[in-house]
Design goal:
Length: 400
């Protein structure tokens, strides 16, 4: 059966979805605040395109688990789920096919003090002369002296990898490009790495060239903001209970069978986000070759391929979940062949079809988070609660 044909088996009503397995309750409300930056400050260490708010995993972790339970996320992104699990005294598992995810998530669940960061920054020499003609041309983003400091820091981090250095790296990643004087770059987008030609056009339109931005002070200032919520000793104490893996969501190596109580995750929404292009400056800084990730990340405009990918991921989650374990999978709406598709309806039907995930999961509930515009949604001209970028639609499934 084709992916589009799945929709013929479902009736979308206001308070429930009618499926071959029976009615599924559908809840539409504001389950968590739409206000920004209300959670632990570590959550806001980095901007990351298409990431959900920490209030989302907090809601499901609080509602369906207890301290000591294991929480997983096969599409870890910037580490929102694993960090929230750690903050709530749960064990966290996070996986992502992009190695950048581990570089962002590890320092958050292994934080260090601002004093350690300051002392380490004082000891790092960023003054070594660099022949920029032998480096990638980043002159549209950075002043030459800023760029030399960035290259020196990148060279240092290649061979220095303790928790302090890794926290400095994660913080530097957050400062590589943005719209204020607190970033290393000329005026740019903070959420995504835009192409070089686009940055050159921004500079031309604004009539500016990149000015010198000293990077140590900016790293330290951002680190202070990131660590302001405290609680570092508790996170450090629990760090050994968490695991970060890099790989395909359909083969979660390192995740033990029947070990996870709850999965809170969000897969790619068809071809809505280019996860490779949108992080190219970050992966450049981390020496992650583009070709090493672009063929592994599933970002397809083909609904059938997306459906097959999600079905295979669900089968692997069925393996790692404990008996009665839950999956809260957040999806959205996408425009496909001229119509708007609710991906939660596609997801629900995967659990009812023999060739997909029948007899693996029972859908318990569907949650639709109703909220107002976010700044990023406004930036991309997203109509409120109509496109996947600005709508949380979560399917809660129980392993059977």
């Amino acid at each position: 059966m084709s992916a589009l044909a799945l929709l013929q088996n479902i009736s979308n009503e206001a308070d429930y979805l009618m499926t071959p397995q029976g009615p599924v309750p559908k809840h539409c409300n504001e389950f968590w605040t739409a206000k920004q930056r209300q959670m632990h400050s570590l959550h806001y260490a980095n901007s990351y395109r298409a990431s959900f708010k920490p209030e989302l995993p907090e809601f499901f972790i609080n509602k369906y688990t207890k301290p000591g339970d294991t929480i997983g996320d096969p599409f870890g992104g910037r580490g929102t789920t694993v960090l929230q699990a750690a903050l709530m005294n749960r064990k966290g598992l996070s996986n992502d096919v992009n190695p950048l995810s581990e570089r962002l998530a590890f320092p958050k669940i292994n934080p260090v003090s601002i004093e350690e960061i300051s002392d380490r920054l004082d000891k790092i020499d960023l003054s070594t002369p660099i022949d920029l003609s032998r480096e990638d041309d980043m002159s549209m983003f950075y002043h030459a002296d800023t760029y030399r400091e960035i290259i020196n820091l990148r060279n240092y981090l290649r061979t220095h990898r303790d928790n302090i250095d890794r926290f400095i790296e994660m913080t530097a990643l957050s400062r590589l490009h943005g719209h204020s004087n607190g970033f290393f770059s000329a005026y740019s987008f903070p959420q995504i790495s835009i192409p070089k030609v686009n940055q050159a056009k921004i500079n031309q339109t604004r009539g500016v060239e990149p000015d010198y931005r000293e990077i140590k002070s900016r790293i330290l200032k951002k680190a202070k903001t990131t660590l302001k919520s405290g609680g570092l000793k508790d996170l450090q104490r629990l760090a050994r209970f968490h695991r970060l893996t890099t790989g395909d969501s359909r083969d979660l190596k390192g995740w033990e069978s029947e070990s996870v109580n709850l999965v809170v995750t969000s897969p790619p929404f068809l071809n809505q986000v280019d996860y490779v292009q949108d992080t190219w400056i970050e992966t450049w800084f981390c020496d992650i070759p583009r070709e090493s990730v672009e063929d592994k990340i599933v970002q397809t405009p083909d609904l059938q391929k997306w459906t097959d990918f999600i079905s295979a991921t669900l089968s692997e989650l069925h393996r790692v979940l404990a008996k009665g374990g839950l999956v809260a999978m957040e999806v959205g709406e996408v425009r496909y062949q001229g119509v708007i598709l609710n991906l939660d309806e596609i997801l629900v039907n995967l659990t009812c079809q023999r060739q997909y995930n029948m007899h693996q999961f029972k859908v318990r509930e569907v949650y639709v988070q109703s909220q107002q515009f976010t700044k990023l949604a406004n930036c991309f001209k997203v109509e409120n609660n109509k496109l996947g970028t600005n709508t949380n639609r979560i399917v809660l499934m129980e392993k059977i």
